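Reading a protein record of the kind used here takes only a little practice. The integers have meaning only within a learned vocabulary of local backbone shapes. With that in mind, consider the following protein and its fold in token form:
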Amino acid sequence: SASLDGRVAASRDRLLLWGDERWQAMGESGEAYRWLRSLHQPQASLEGSGSLVRDEDEPAPLPPVEGDASHLYEDYLPESVTGRPGHRGWFTCVDGRGRVRNWIKDGAFFGEEWQGWHSLILVCRATPAPYLAYLRREAIPYLVTGDERVDLALALEKLGSSLGVTTLLSTAGGRMNGALLRAGLVDEVNVELLPGVVGGMDTPSLFDSPALGPEENPARLELMSALVQSGGQVWLRYRTVS
């Protein structure tokens, strides 16, 4: 969901995933999200680490890795997790810098509808080795995609080839959404506009990507549907146009 002026949070210092009572004052949201889950049946959702930890937060230190750490930079998909009974989906998160701690591994924490979902982290070859060792100790699967940063196209390719993911639903913030759109990895854009205006010069917006280059064009969209809801929310559904 977003405010009428395209903001996805009330202020930059609030984490997207845990909500904000000021945001909730604009009215209920989530009907579009539940409908999309029902329609597309995604096998994975996507967040960026910025939805879970603020830029200014310092992550807790981790013990150093002794000896050769090269094995840590191989995909980690333990059978105890990937082959567990009742599996339904993956909470995927891009965390190339290794900043998030205390992962909630089992989706049942968020309610019955998330039963059978499990965390999976997207990292890169620049991710600190102690963080990868921490994920292995916690039996949290990860995929290594990219050198200096997470390669989103490769990440989606690996999710498909290694885990059978064919549909991914991004609920991430503006930077991640902007990166996905610029990389041509988005098929459909859904926005539930809430009846309120947030403002703010640095407040996160729907697509926080770098400015277009001289040879780049805006991403083109084609309207699929528009639905006005009883509380004043407007759900806009677009497909991307190549």
In short: The two ends are 25 Å apart (CA to CA). The mean pLDDT is 90. The first helix runs from residue 21 to 24.
